[in-house]
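Aggregate trends can hide what the representation actually does to any particular protein. In the encoding step, the backbone of a single protein was reduced to a row of integers, each denoting a local shape. The record that follows shows the chain in one-letter code together with its fold in token form.

***
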Amino acid sequence: MRIGDLALETGVNRRLLRYYEEQGLLRPVRLDNGYREYTEADIATVRNIRALLAAGLSTAVIARVLRCVHGGDELLVPSGCPTFIEDLRRERAHIAEMISQLQGSQGILDAFLDAALRGPRG
């Protein structure tokens, strides 16, 4: 299938599909005319990429773990991926830290808003 067909199947625009290829996440076959040729497996790969992006992972991390994620509607992780759990735990800890920092920022903004809504004293 061509890139337009993959875009229709996955709901991901062509520019992003090319970006995924640049990042090494997709590896379509190149035909003699230079066109990319995608397979049915690429549909699942793109859906897995989208799920991992939605989980907050960067494309660099996805490049490390994508080979460990298989399946369509149900995610499967084969036993031959020993660093997968470690990578996910590291990324989860990073996201938890970012959430904590954002909550601190939110608290500071709330204090400023409260002070502003109370108006000047004196």
Remarks:
- The longest helix spans residues 84-118.
- The mean pLDDT is 90.
- Helices lie at 3-10, 14-22, 40-54, 59-65, 84-118.
- The first strand starts at residue 29 and ends at 30.
